[in-house]
Request: fold
Amino acid sequence: MTAAGTRRRMARQGPLAPRSAGRALLALCLFASVPERASSGEAIFSIGYNGILDSEEEAGVALGLGVHSRPVWAIRRLAFGFGGALTIDADGDAWAGLGIDAYYPFGADFRLDLGVMAGGYSLGDGHDLGSELEFRSRIGVSRPIADGPWRAGFAVEHMSNAGIGDTNPGVETFFLTLGRTF
Reply:
């Protein structure tokens, strides 16, 4: 094919020709897979404090409930699933959202728990986060309790509107967690 023919083909197809897109898809499939062991979904109960890092607001008790699907996709040992969560604090602030969870096992029965969710925020008498749409990122560590279906751990989450509101103060919450597989 001539150089002019190649330029015309690239103009029609864009910079990623079908051949290179196919190679990228093949590489992704080699590294990604469905998790080998189909673990169960999980319900997470949390109790903690929010606003600890905020010098202008008082820290308050927060309660959380999360439901996580069993992992549906994995890249090596990092497994991904879907989840939903609800958080209510002592000031009457409430948040409910949906998003993606990730899990990475390490050490002797430990697991790194990650999550990113978007949700609706209802302001009570506490933290004005600047928007009704708030994003929550969460990182935690958990491990099984004995041989049963329970996991205990701790988590830290950050909630903010990612700059889409008039203000974006954000709030951090530290949780103790108790999870049960189902």
The beta strands are 32-33, 42-50, 60-68, 73-75, 78-89, 94-106, 110-122, 133-144, 150-160, 171-181.
